[in-house]
Design goal:
single chain; alpha/beta; three-stranded antiparallel β-sheet
Length: 288
């Protein structure tokens, strides 16, 4: 049984169709289809039910997909184990946030390819929530306060956070002086988050009143600089706006918790060496 046929089947199963899998694998659809037909012929059973919208696993396909994925993972591990110097090889698929990804994470990911010439890395940059398992990623990089999930997370660093407003907004509306003043100001925010301020060893959780919401920290910074309200931003995002005079830090007597940077991966007993190598490199570059 050809391992490439197994890999192709797993990709089609996870992607939901031949077209999506061919894009992931960077192969012609005809090659993907031929591999699937060869595998089904060898097994003597239908693994996928083709539809106009893609492909759905049959009962046999659902069972076989789990075994095939484990076989592919074991083959990858075996190849890495016997390679000269433990060289990493194969494909590593990473979901990266677009807000921080190109500037903060891309250089470290590029360094991983320099250190391991046999390794291929495919990154997808997006600020939306990515389902790692369904969309076929080995791991993801996430920034923020992680929600409960069955993903395995490893902290790789953090960003400090402060409250900001534009000079125009401050001139028109003033600024909150203490946490209880915050709900009286329109907030620019990601969702319905709580801002937890601290001072003197005490915590002050506040539910801001949002008027402008966005899933991008850069969009939030731009809206705040345009006078839409006050916001909590990582200093690394706010720095160029502060330098340009379009944002000003406020409520400096109160601290906000830093936000974490994490590598997350699907649940499993052990991370692959590729994911471990990326995690260690990110800690090396960003953990400071």
């Amino acid at each position: 049984m050809d391992v490439d046929d197994l890999r192709t089947f797993v990709e089609v199963a996870d992607a939901g169709g031949v077209s999506a899998a061919s894009r992931r694998l960077n192969l012609a659809k005809s090659i993907v289809s031929r591999r699937l037909l060869r595998l089904e012929a060898e097994l003597g059973t239908q693994l996928l039910a083709r539809t106009t919208r893609g492909a759905a696993l049959t009962e046999a396909g659902t069972t076989f997909r789990e075994h095939a994925a484990r076989v592919c993972a074991e083959v990858d591990a075996a190849m890495e184990a016997i390679s000269v110097g433990g060289e990493l090889r194969g494909l590593l698929r990473v979901a990266v946030p677009s807000t921080f990804g190109p500037t903060h994470f891309a250089p470290a990911i590029a360094e991983l390819t320099r250190r391991h010439p046999q390794l291929q890395i495919n990154c997808r940059y997006s600020d939306r929530y990515v389902d790692l398992v369904t969309e076929g990623f080995d791991c993801g990089i996430r920034v923020g306060y992680l929600a409960d999930s069955n993903l395995v997370a490893r902290r790789i660093g953090s960003f400090s956070v402060r409250l900001f407003a534009s000079p125009d907004y401050i001139a028109k509306r003033g600024v909150p002086e203490k946490p209880e003043d915050v709900p009286g100001h329109p907030a620019v925010m990601i969702g319905t988050e709580t801002w937890t301020f601290s001072a003197g060893g005490k915590s002050f959780p506040v539910r801001p009143t949002g008027r402008f919401r966005a899933d991008s920290a850069v969009a939030i910074a731009e809206a705040t600089a345009a006078g839409a309200g006050i916001t909590a931003l990582p200093d690394v995002i706010a720095e160029p706006y502060v330098a340009a005079g379009s944002l000003v830090p406020i409520m400096l007597g109160y601290a906000l918790p830093s936000i974490g940077m994490f590598v997350v991966r699907p649940p499993g007993q052990h991370p692959s060496r590729k994911v471990q190598a990326l995690t260690e490199l990110l800690i090396e570059r960003l953990g400071r």
